[in-house]
Amino acid sequence: MKAAELQSSIGVLRQERERMSAEADALRESVVGVRARHATLTQILNDRSYTTNAVQKLFAANESGGGGDFHAVGVLADYAEVEEQHEAAIEQYLRDELEYVVVETFDHARAGVSLLRDEVGGRATFFVDSLRNLK
């Protein structure tokens, strides 16, 4: 009788261990995803360290999902592809323009203006990349 009780108890404990192991695996995957997301956000913010405070806050709101209808694609500097020897000249000539926030639609630009006005504060210029929607 005692052996049967012990085997039953062992079976219950094995099921419990398997459930907890599966739960631990799910938590590990979740942690890996969160760490990857954190690394991506940190890299994005570091890459945009040259931008104004308002533009950085816009991108932070964009990445956190707190921007509502606002969706930024990047800044104009992300699209400027020049040879390395010309980078300094382009940066000096297009200094302010390189900080233009690139959005896909005018609605996204309007949402960005609203976000600046109501939550973030500051100024930014928006560049609508309408070519993205053309076939």
Percent in helix? 55-70%
Gap from first CA to last CA? 76 Å
Question: Mind summarizing the main beta sheet?
Answer: 3 strands, mixed
Q: Could you give the count of β-strands?
A: 3
Give the low-confidence spans: none
Beta-strand share of residues: 5-15%
Average pLDDT value? 79
Number of helices: 5
Category by helix and strand content? mainly alpha
The general outline is: elongated
Strand order of the largest sheet: 1-2-3
SSE series? HHEHHEHE
Task: Compute the CA-based radius of gyration.
Answer: 25 Å
Describe what you observe in this structure.
This protein has 135 residues and is mainly alpha-helical. The chain is built from 5 helices and 3 strands, in the order ααβααβαβ. A 3-stranded mixed sheet has the order 1-2-3. Helix 5 (106-120) links the parallel strand 2 and strand 3. It is elongated, with a radius of gyration of 25 Å. The mean pLDDT is 79.
Short description:
Helices cover 62% and strands 7% of the residues. With 135 residues, the chain is mainly α.
